[in-house]
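stuck on this chain:
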Amino acid sequence: VQLVESGGGLVQPGGSLRLSCAASGFTFSRFYMRWSRQAPGKERELVAGISSLSSSTTYADSVKGRFTISRDNAKNTVYLQMNSLKPEDTAVYYCNAPQLGEYWGQGTQVTVSS
């Protein structure tokens, strides 16, 4: 199992970023996928999840209405569109397939600051 996150960076409050997670080593289209984040000194928290065929999505209350999770099973990739970013969104963002256990990528850093 390999998960490679990308798309992070430094953005001003109110800005947008689109994160990508390229997956390999398993049958991506069969698995629920999830984005989580971890800020310095804090525990990892769930951000959003999407079912295998994109029929169902879930979001943390803190990101509802601002973030959108999507996936492209043909490309084995899951995305996180983040709009109206806030300083409290600053964290390292990770994707994973929870049913596969504790496989994590290296994460991608998102910093929201003026």
